[in-house]
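B., you asked whether I could sanity-check this one before it goes into the benchmark set. Here's the sequence:
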Amino acid sequence: MLQETAKAAWEYGRKFLMQGKVADYIPELGKANPVYLGLCIKTPDGKTIEYGDVEERFSMQSISKVVALATALQHLGFDTVFSHVMMEPSGDAFNSILKLDTASNRPFNPMINAGAIEIVNLLAPTFKFEQLLDFTRAICMDDDITLNEAVYHSEYNTGDRNRAIGYLLKSKEVLEGDVLQTVDLYFKLCSMNVTARSLAGLGLILANGGVDPRNGVRLLSAQTVRTVKTLMLTCGCYDGSGEFAVRVGLPAKSGVGGGIMSCVEGQMGIGTYGPALDEKGNSIGGKNTLEYFSRAMHLHIFDSERE
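And here's what the prediction gave me:
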């Protein structure tokens, strides 16, 4: 049933592709093919189910915020991390500075740009990009993840808004250290090349409580996993997070590169790739695929018929 439902979900998601639009505010992202759609599901017993464009590499974008947050929680601790950022949904666009300048000096959560930049600022004194890249490879179960140089340079050349967020945080004495170095590291993390398979691997590690099911190695603590998944559920799909939680009901993190990474507790990791985005910046094919799959398999965390 899992295989058949996954195929039906992927076919359903394809119906919506022409309603979306690829991100073009980062010029390199605008080159993506809007009709791509890939779905990959990985289970703890080693099963992989996949349909469509699962081998196509694309930049991780905001899904890298999960990597940064998990790293910070592991190495700096819960209290330190959340003394710098809050854990509340913002209700604003991912690159908004509205609440940062009116409601709070601290960013509302680590899944919006301001929060992620502050998290990266906490990591910058200790971690080089290569170390974070190695960790990303481990928790995505993909040794072939690299820096997409073209996307990185495109982000660097068009990233003035993120630099502005960094300087605003600096002016409020939230961000310490060098703004430009912090934002540069943030750009590199967003530009890591992954596939739908990579995202399914990350989702599987989270679904499996932080343990790599292939070898039993613990990569993330149970508390880190719980915190990350909770913030994914409440804040992981930009200002479409509430609707996604109602319709899909699974922890997920999206990126404007077209990826969505999701997990089902104890059961599976799910990765989708579809660069055609909705008006909130979420993959329109990916979110509809996940909605169909969650509904058909009764995976919503509040579903009374959950299998």
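One thing to flag: The domain at 2-58+195-297 is CATH 3.40.710.10 (Beta-lactamase). Otherwise nothing jumped out at me.
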